[in-house]
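Q: Hi! First time asking for a complex rather than a single chain. Here are the components, and I think there are two in total. Is that enough to go on?
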Amino acid sequence: MPRVVVDVMLKPEILDPQGQAVANALPRLGVSDVASVRIGRRIEIEFQGEPDLDRAREIADKLLANPVIEDFTVRLVEADETADARS
Amino acid sequence: MTARVGVVTFPGSLDDGDAARAVRIAGAEPVRLWHGDPDLHGVDAVVLPGGFSYGDYLRCGAIARFAPVMETIVDAAQGGLPVLGICNGFQILCEAHLLPGALTRNQHLHFRNRDQVLRIESAGTAWTNTFQPGQEVLVPVKNGEGCYVADTATLDQLEAEGRVVARYVGGNPNGSLRDIAAITNSAGNVVGIMPHPEHAVEALTGPSLDGLGFFTSVLKHLVGTPA
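A: Yes, that's all I need. Here is the structure of the assembled complex.
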């Protein structure tokens, strides 16, 4: 059964101190060509029946993301693709 | 008649005991409210205390907003019930859209815990009417996600309408825009504050007694409000 994946990211104009901290650590790995790092959240939703993108959008808008500071995208992902993403 | 002030306990609330104690020291009767019970038990005002409701999962206050007690509080607040959200309570009020903006991770990523000077900017709210505008008070601040953000239009509107209730003085502990420590809704009955007035009500445990003014204010407000 496909899953709905919701990606939540801080809006570009909102400072992401966590991302900055990661970016600042990269030179210690010898990585010096990264301009910026932004950190978000990925949420996978499995419906009991057919995946419902509209319903997922409503869930994202009301609970998963705070539209004051965050943007979100909603998409369908096949189950095996989800497994791939984890490996 | 003694005013009855409700203090909500969510799973993960920490400062509900201190908030109830502050209510009692101010001269009111604290009434403990439970997150799962939508009944406000006839209280005259409500305090949403500090802590980490629902473990701060997802975002601070995001899940608490959907607690049964919050549905009743949102309706009652829109009808004029005085509500004070402290720290996590402020985060919950923003998530519940009773106050604009949001509270995000401290800019420097460190948890800040210190005594903090605030300047009271608005003495026109239900929770600050015993202060003088411009008065400085000393209360503890302790937060990891206390950085207040909102878009410029919202910030300008808050300033123009006198809805910035308090600002940090002598150093901004979290990067809050325009040094904002507390704001109110347009009616002045709902106030969110990041620092902790309930920890500054007794000489034994607090840096001052300045926090008591927030709780005596709501009693004064209630006396002036026809039942």
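A: Chain B has one domain: 4-223. Let me know if you'd like any chain examined more closely.
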